Amino acid sequence: MMWIDQLEKIAPVRSSGESRLFVVEPRSEEEFRNVVNLIRSNGLKAHVIGTGENGIGEPVTADVYISTRRYVGISESSDSDLYVKVKSGTVFLDLLKKSREKWNVDTLLA
Q1: Taking a C-beta distance cutoff of 8 angstroms, is the pair 77, 86 a contact?
Q2: CA distances from 80 to 10, 83, 84, 103 (A)
Q3: Is the Cβ–Cβ distance between 75 and 58 less than 8 Å?
Q4: How many CB atoms lie within 10 A of CB 23?
Q5: Is 84 within 8 Å of 74 (Cβ atoms)?
Q6: What distance in Å separates the CA atoms of residue 26 and residue 33, rounded to the nearest whole number?
Q7: pLDDT value at 54 more than 70
Q8: So what's the pLDDT on residue 18?
Q9: Among the listed residues 55, 58, 67, 53, the one whose alpha carbon sits nearest the alpha carbon of residue 21
Q10: Distance CA 68, CA 50 (A)
């Protein structure tokens, strides 16, 4: 079994066809860990990419790109301390919306 077949069993994979560009989109810490372990065990080069909203830096080439697009959500929060810890793919506007619903942030910021 090729490594790409194994990768597809762990998390969704998008490919561009002819250019052989593979983007894997893990949704959980476990999927992220399994993706990285598979890539490492096959001696492949990986690069983590964000949600595609901002692009900075020099172009990078890799065998597999690990996208944080589906790695979203609040992983920890404290009502008493008013803090929140989010997964790396969480879009700020989504976090703001959830915060407004839960804590009435507009009142706190006034």
Answers
A1: no
A2: 37, 8, 11, 10
A3: no
A4: 17
A5: yes
A6: 9
A7: no
A8: 66
A9: 67
A10: 5
Measure the CA–CA gap between 32 and 28, rounded to whole angstroms.
6
HEC-encoded secondary structure of the chain: CCHHHHHHHHCCEEECHHHCCEEECCCCHHHHHHHHHHHHHCCCCEEEECCCCCCCCCCCCCCEEEECCCCCCEEEEECCCCEEEECCCCCHHHHHHHHHHHHCHHHHHC
Q: Is the pTM value of this prediction over 0.90?
A: no
Q: Provide the β-strand partners of residue 83.
A: 78
Q: Are 19 and 35 within 8 A, CB to CB?
A: no
Structure tokens at 10: 């762990």
Q: Which residues contact 106 (CB under 8 A, 6 or more apart)?
A: 100
